[in-house]
Amino acid sequence: MSSDKYDKVFIDCFSIDKAKLKKNLEYNSIPAWDSVGHMAMIAALEEAFDIVFEMDDIIDFSSYKVGKEILKKYKVNIS
Amino acid sequence: MKTFSLNSVELLEYQPNRHPFLMIDYVTKVKPGVFAEGYKNLTNNEWYFPIHFPNNPNVPGVLQLEALAQMLTVAITTLPGNKGKITHALSHTVRFRKEVLPGQKFVLKTKVDSWKRGICKGYGQGIVDGEIACEATMTITIPEILEQYLPKNKA
């Protein structure tokens, strides 16, 4: 699967340009990805991919890059 | 879950605010995680009336909003495991429609739109004499729960 759907969640939730994602965006690295932003992003990913994250995965979801690895557990493979 | 009421003493177990900042007298009906309704009777003795304003006493908008947020809090703190937990406001959008005056009964109706991982999104109306005086969409959190879900380390 291309990363478009995954990227769109970040772009929409954090109101950022796609270019920001190339630098491996991390939790708390921008004002929008704070605690509330984190929960909004997690909820948006769950809706976009029709999955429900386990608590440990929500905690481990510390960056754009790590998120791709976590999604593999839910059979969502992003190139 | 069952619907029940909370009198002014029982309310204190579910609402951490205290007089004179507690903006609820009575919870007439609460269904945990779904809605909470009740009221505040506004007497001339309310602390803000002499100063807001000397010749035109009315409830400050910020306190009307606070009353709605406090009532929404009750809808969440009555859920199992949340009793006595502290809540914080995250974001509120409010529209004021009419003044709320001494002697009026300020009816508060709130409903939970979503409650997940320590974040509650909800809606509330403040009503006087059968008319909407203010309405708000609100997001509140129980930090103690929210913090359990946050990344501890950077990647």
Q: Could you explain the architecture of this structure?
A:
- The complex is a heterodimer of chains A (79) and B (155).
- Chain A is mostly helical.
- The longest helix of chain A is centred in the middle third of the chain and has 15 residues, at 35-49.
- Chain A is 57% helix and 0% strand.
- Chain A is globular and about 30 Å long.
- In chain A, helix 1 runs antiparallel to helix 3.
- Chain B has a 7-stranded antiparallel β-sheet.
- Chain B is globular.
- Chain A binds chain B through residues 24, 26-29, 35-36, 38-39, 42-43, 55, 58-63, 65-66, and chain B through 90, 116-119, 139, 141, 146-155.
From the structure above, extract its key features.
heterodimer; A: 79 residues; mainly alpha; 57% helix; globular; B: 155 residues; mainly beta; 2 helices
Which helices and strands appear, and what pairs or packs with what?
The complex is a heterodimer of chains A (79) and B (155).
Chain A: H1 4-14, H2 18-21, H3 35-49, H4 55-60, H5 64-72
Chain B: E1 4-6, E2 26-31, E3 35-41, H1 61-77, E4 88-96, E5 105-116, E6 119-128, E7 131-141, H2 143-146
Antiparallel strand pairs in B: 1-2, 2-3, 3-5, 4-7, 5-6, 6-7
Shape of chain A: globular
Contiguous helical run count of chain B:
2
Order of helices and strands of chain B: EEEHEEEEH
Assembly type of the shown chains?
heterodimer
Kindly provide the radius of gyration of chain A, computed on alpha-carbon positions and rounded to a whole number of angstroms. Answer: 11 Å
Strand content of chain A: under 5%
Give average pLDDT of chain A, whole number. 93
Secondary-structure class of chain A:
mainly alpha
Low-confidence stretches of chain B: none
Helix content of chain A: 55-70%
Classification by helices and strands of chain B: mainly beta
Shape of chain B, please? globular
* Average pLDDT level of chain B: 96
First-last Cα distance of chain B: 41 Å
How would a textbook summarize the main sheet of chain A? none
- The succession of helices and strands of chain A, N to C, reads HHHHH
Distance between the termini of chain A: 6 Å
